[in-house]
Amino acid sequence: MYKNVLASIPGIEWYPVVALLFFFSFFGVLVIWYFRADQRRLEALAASILNDGTPRPESNSPSKTMQGS
């Protein structure tokens, strides 16, 4: 049934080609942006995800527990 429905759509053979082009062009642009972007900015973005501004309790800090061992 679905084969007949898809066959009745004019130009259906271009849909997978266009989808593949969109897919690869999106990731291609991301790779180009990554290599051209300022690395300090990328490091700041990566750190901002982990640092939400809330203070951590000192007892749960991994650096304190590792230094005491």
Q: Helix- and strand-based class?
A: mainly alpha
Estimated helix fraction: 55-70%
First-to-last CA distance: 68 Å
Major sheet size, sense and barrel closure = none
Per DSSP, the total helix count is 4
What would the average pLDDT be, to the nearest integer? Answer: 81
Rg = 25 Å
Approximate shape: elongated
Return the string of H and E elements: HHHH
Number of strands: 0
Strand content: under 5%
Which ranges are low-confidence, i.e. pLDDT below 50, for 5 or more consecutive residues? none
Report what the structure shows.
- It is a single chain.
- The protein is an all-alpha fold.
- The chain has a domain at 1-40.
- Helix content is 68%, strand content 0%.
- It has four helices and no strands.
- It has helices spanning 2-7, 15-36, 39-50, 62-68.
- The longest helix is centred in the middle third of the chain and has 22 residues, at 15-36.
- It starts with a helix and ends with a helix.
- The model has no long low-confidence stretch (mean pLDDT 81).
What would you say about this model in short?
The chain has helices spanning 2-7, 15-36, 39-50, 62-68. With 69 residues, the chain is mainly α. The longest helix has 22 residues, at 15-36.
Question: How is the topology of this model organized?
Answer:
Layout: H1 2-7, H2 15-36, H3 39-50, H4 62-68
Q: Which keywords apply here?
A:
single chain; 69 residues; mainly alpha; 68% helix; 0% strand; elongated
